[in-house]
Design brief:
homodimer, Carbamate kinase, two-stranded antiparallel ribbon
């Protein structure tokens, strides 16, 4: 099977013009089918403040009320997404900006109201993905650029970008050998949180178990690792956790970040 | 050749929730390939006012400066476009929201600075259109929904929605029998501007010439008619000028609005 790179970037890349430019330049040079998923960034908060839209929280969890939904639809689906697409086009990469609503790409279920009403938030599974059309676009050398938005029942919904990346990876693993790359602020998963040079280069199910029993992982990295192994168990060939600046190195066999395999 | 409907709506439909809902319901029922182009609407001005972005004018012409460009990228490319797409998906229409940057669909030239610097405005011709990818999407039963945005040299550009509709129509007329439908606030082109019932049902080059020599057309409709005949002369089979509420009737042989033919 052909290789497919599914790459997720977050606010730390989006908020810094230079980092973003460097990342997009690297992204454009990858000579294989690829998909980018971008998160939000501080620009949404900044514009929200100007519009008098305050982030609301219940029990420490962010709530997407109607004004916040309009804000993220504008900023994620419009401003950030289209600026990335225009820049990639200049770099010779035939990018196409998408939300889950476009082409029915990712149909969500609005999160049910139990203890907390999260508002306009969409929950998704690999079955939510219209992988037929997505596969078709990739075959035409179109590079999908996803904003962290899905939809259900006629409305846009806010959805976690890490989850979108993982769900796309699982769904497309029937067509490709997928390497799912999560870019974050560190070089990789660290053995010693105080030592930036202690990156674990390779993790498989058994070494993961061993490290877990030793209790070496910091709380922040645990959900990422759980997501990564869930993806691997659902057919994704490899997951890579690393720094955006190392993107090119992290598309190779010998990686800078943490490569996770079955 | 198969029929293709290219339909443009403006602010008068977008600004009224009921009109928009009715229009989208009608649009979804059209059983043929179709493309929608939407303009802006007062929501952009409203959000711009809240963000302190003032529309600037030089010699009565609107200028797209950098803050205005961000505003229209957010509102046209994000908010309006994605809300339309989500609503159409609910109506069973596999809509895909696009700007000219997405999939390199419409590559513009930034308007040269002569007497007036219009700012971030893109000029386009039928050669600007990536009709191969557009045709391919239509073949997959995907319904493209265009925001009035194009791009050049790594940046998004503001482009007139009427012009985008006309350029798409000309470019796709090699694959389809195109009917280009301009929805505006009147039933059609009026013989007598004071009489709403004086719609001219059919116009061809010779009757147009005759009416022109009689000086019956109001100033407002003249540029629309010039555009329409320019499109016809460049291969578009039919242009229809009418009211959004008459959409379904205006897709038939016997139309409510003004049908323009060679």
């Amino acid at each position: 099977m052909n290789k497919l790179y599914i790459i997720k970037i977050g606010g730390n890349v989006l908020d810094d013009e230079k980092s973003l430019k460097r990342f997009l330049t690297d992204f454009a040079t990858i000579q294989a089918p690829k998909i980018l998923i971008h998160g939000g960034g501080t620009i949404a908060t900044k514009i929200g403040d100007q519009l008098g839209i305050k982030s609301s929280y219940v029990k420490g969890r962010r709530i997407t009320d109607a004004p916040t939904l309009d804000l993220v639809t504008m900023v994620y689906g419009g401003l950030i997404n289209k600026q990335i697409v225009a820049q990639l086009q200049k770099l010779g990469c035939n990018a196409m900006g998408l939300t889950g609503a476009d082409g029915n790409m990712i149909k969500a279920v609005k999160r049910p109201v139990n203890e907390i009403d999260y508002g306009f938030v969409g929950d998704i599974t690999p079955d939510s993905v219209n992988s037929t059309l997505l596969y078709f676009l990739l075959k035409q050398n179109v590079i999908p650029i996803f904003a962290p938005l899905t939809y259900a029942d006629g409305v846009i919904l806010n959805t976690n970008a890490d989850t979108i990346a993982s769900v796309l990876a699982v769904s497309l693993s029937k067509h490709f050998d997928v390497r799912l790359i999560y870019c974050f602020e560190k070089k990789g998963v660290l053995k010693d949180i105080t030592d930036e040079n202690s990156v674990i280069r390779l993790l498989d199910a058994s070494s993961y178990k061993q490290f877990l029993s030793q209790g070496i992982f910091a709380d922040g990295i645990l959900p990422k690792l759980e997501n990564a192994f869930a993806a691997i168990q659902s057919g994704v060939k490899e997951v890579l956790i690393g720094e955006a600046g190392d993107l090119i190195k992290n598309t190779r066999e010998e990686t800078e970040g943490t490569l996770i395999k079955q």
